[in-house]
Specification:
Layout: H1 8-18, H2 20-26, E1 28-32, H3 34-39, E2 45-51, H4 52-57, H5 59-66, E3 72-76, H6 78-84, E4 93-98, H7 105-109, E5 119-123, H8 129-142, E6 146-150, H9 159-165, E7 174-177, H10 180-189, E8 193-197, E9 203-204, E10 214-218, H11 227-230, E11 235-238, H12 250-266
Parallel strand pairs: 2-3, 5-6, 5-10, 6-7, 8-10, 8-11, 9-11
Antiparallel strand pairs: 1-4, 2-4
Helix pairs in contact: 1-2, 8-9, 8-12
Length: 267
């Protein structure tokens, strides 16, 4: 059992939790909690760390998940688990999983997950981890084909993002574009209709026909879409609101658009 917070493994895990560069250099990310541990796909679990209490409660699950993967396995004291954890009340299980960096534009353009009719989210400079994680979760529920992001969007492997996805990060294709505008142009060449959630929208979000290949643009929480990205949209759409509210949380806006597309496609 590892009982010291000065242990090299413990210090490395803290570095992986705090620094994107460390995660990217190793090609791994951290997953916390029972639910997320259960969601890690077979073959992507690389390291597993548990407390004695968790091992006693979930021994069968631990043995099943470890299986023949050959993942590294260690037992932490409760103090060490609390030190490494990104949550106030850790559940006693932490693991390192392999990053998925193989998703490409073609994977989300082909629309296999939506019967050959892509439904794509384009995220421009989103910075809030909770928003991104919620968008992944809502996106899976609504049937998105993939999520295309500008390179300066918050890291999908940030621990707060991972928790907010509730496992959707393992299933929803995503791609960070070095040049978002160029990636959008390629998408449009494939016949994908583009709609920007924009304060200058002249039509309500539930008016266009989203039963064809569709992409929605969602901008930065404070500044919205950059002009060069917004100008690539075929149409600007708006979400009608009452009272004195001018805009919605980025994740809420994205969810409304995605589920409207899903509603239309169901009918």
């Amino acid at each position: 059992m590892i009982t010291s917070t000065a242990n090299n493994t413990v210090r490395r895990l803290v570095g992986l939790r705090k620094k994107r560069r460390s995660r990217d250099e190793e090609g791994v990310f951290l997953v916390e909690g029972l639910r997320m541990f259960e969601e890690v796909p077979e073959g992507e679990l690389l390291e597993l760390y548990v407390t004695e209490e968790f091992l006693c409660r979930e021994r069968r699950l631990v043995e099943t998940k470890r299986g023949g993967s050959g993942c590294r396995f260690e037992v932490f004291s409760r103090q060490v688990m609390e030190y490494v954890s990104d949550t106030k009340h850790p559940q006693g299980v932490l693991c390192a999983a392999r990053q998925r960096r193989g998703n490409g534009l073609e994977e989300m353009f082909d629309g296999k997950a939506s019967g050959g009719c892509p439904l794509i989210l384009v995220l421009d400079q989103l910075q809030d981890p909770g928003n991104l994680g919620t968008i992944f979760r809502a996106g899976e529920a609504a049937g998105v084909t993939g999520i295309l992001m500008s390179k300066d969007t918050v890291d999908v492997y940030n621990p707060k993002v991972i928790r907010s996805t509730m496992g959707s990060v393992f299933r929803v294709p995503f791609y960070y574009a070095e040049d978002l505008s160029e990636a959008v142009r390629k998408m449009k060449e494939r016949g994908v209709g583009t709609y920007a959630a924009h304060l200058g929208g002249t039509i309500c979000y539930d008016e266009p026909d989203y039963r064809r290949p569709t992409a929605f643009f969602i901008g930065n929480e404070g500044n919205g879409l950059r002009r060069e990205v917004a100008e690539l949209a075929d149409r600007y759409i708006r979400i009608p609101m009452r009272g004195q509210v001018e805009s919605l949380n980025a994740a809420v806006a994205a969810a409304l658009l995605m589920f409207e597309a899903g509603r239309q496609r169901r009918h």
